């Protein structure tokens, strides 16, 4: 009885978190600023390279090197195909990133995930037994739809969007606490089982490797753009990673556990990376604008 209540509560909390966080991002997103940032070809190319080329490749390599069991390996691959946590704007504020480029990266990540994941998964993870349409459907409903609703509301009334944003943000923060608490309560035994499989270490190395790679390859970008590429690439959209699993009735529980672990780990590494990037920020007058 209790386990059933926890399971349904977790599902509701997860869906509410995804919908609320992405609506919140859409409410704050200035399409004109994001569109201007998307004209920065160097930024766009580096974002795509870090998020959708190096990310999945690194996930595959780490899964094989660590010899992760099939379910954990699949979970890591799903995370590799779902870059950019919805709380990127908050991390960008800490690292002194450009809000327009933060919005642009979120657009790139959202659209890229919806396009790349349904195409890539049937080939790299045939054991999931899911077709492109069944993978794309939850992504469209849980990623693109709420994101688009937030943008539409801001387009209709910027004033109303600004007023709604603090309320939704508080609800999302409360939802995160419920989500993490229930996820741990329901899966604590499975989470403990991961200790002997190096799944936690694999995720930490995965996120850290993404941060180092994206920071290194974007060295010609100014700090306020470079930190966006780094933070967007080294954080994961856990909801988007879990979405394909919801479309498969016989999904391996280990894959779900791997994604639940990511909810904790991506928060810790994301905020730690943002703090480090803020410290690495060039002093006023010393930064060279690489345009």
From TrEMBL:
The keyword Repeat does not apply. It comes from the Bacteria. Gene3D superfamilies: 1.20.1530.20. The chain crosses the membrane at residues 12-31, 43-66, 72-91, 103-123, 135-156, 168-188, 194-216, 255-277. It is found in: Membrane. The keyword Signal does not apply. Pfam families: SBF. This is BASS family bile acid:Na+ symporter. It comes from Rhizobium binae.
